[in-house]
Write a structure and sequence with these properties.
The chain is mostly helical. It is built from 2 helices and no strands. The longest helix is centred in the C-terminal third of the chain and has 45 residues. The chain is flat.
Amino acid sequence: MSYFLNPKFMKTYGKVLVALSCGALAGAILGILFAPDKGSVTRRKISDAAEDYTNKFKSAKDSFISKAKPAHNGHEKKVKAEES
């Protein structure tokens, strides 16, 4: 059995990971609440950042699909030819 799957290890370090995650979340929330900007400005910054990441993800997805489609079509033709 792997050391990391050991119940004793999971019980001890699982609690640590949960505590660290909760602390990071609380810190992020407090950072937003006590930010030097007005709430509307902070929300706009968060919204703009989320929109930027969404656009980057869509662009990366479209690029991947455009590069993968020719390979997929060639593979599909090869499989059909082998089946015949």
